[in-house]
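Reviewers of the previous submission asked for a worked example of the structure-prediction workflow described in the proposal, so we include one complete record here. The input consisted solely of the amino acid sequence. No template or homolog information was supplied to the procedure at any stage.
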Amino acid sequence: MMLIFSKWPAGWSRQSRCTLAIVVGAALLMLLMCCIDVPLAYMPEPIAENAAQFAEGARITVYLTLVSGLAGLVLGVLGALGRLSRIPPLRWLASFYIWVIRGTPLLVQVLFVFLALPELMPWLKMDDFTSACVALAFNAGAYNAESIRAGLLAVPRGQTEAARSLGLSNWYTFRDVVFPQAFKIALPPLVNNFIALLKDSSLAYAIGVVELTNVANRIQSATFQPIPPLVTAAVIYLLLTTVLTQISTAVEHRMDVEGRQQ
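From that input alone, the workflow returned the following structure tokens.
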């Protein structure tokens, strides 16, 4: 998609073409979520009779990815700031969080949030979808934190000194000078984390979330035909990751005001 919009429309600026690519990509994603059951209905059995289930599973997968991805981005920013904090308890807490999350399997984290967390906190009631969102968000946040921390450390110290010499406070220096540059530097690994999150969301099937993998597994269990449902789920995942990758690439080019990416 970016290949199409890299030269067309000819009279538009590169930023405008990237914005158009983002809009078209978002429209394609919405179209895929709303109408994926239409082509599936013309597929051979057992796909055709379960087209609506595949479509609903794809929608739940996207919702799960978007909610946990946005929450994971916020947790990543907080984790990165904690890791760079001058306050030792905050630095220790952020380091412990990242160490635990990155050192344990995601499946264990999903099961812990769904099964063990209510035992530790009986007042905390979460359904399977919410539990999956929490587990995925905390997992993504740990990896995002390291990417954002690397971006913050990559911003030259002179940028901060120049901002302070102009009379900007610490908050405005961070908000208007340091963080925008750090976010642009960290954007490629953040994009990779988000795409990986879409595929990692398949682990939510372990706690009963009826997402795409769960749908395929249920159909193959009922029909004893593993190849059609699993191949169908794989193709839908491939379509979703392709569209999201194109949107993310367009966002990267949109933020590349220096024109380093061609």
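The chain has a mean pLDDT of 88. We consider this example representative of the routine output the project will generate in years two and three.
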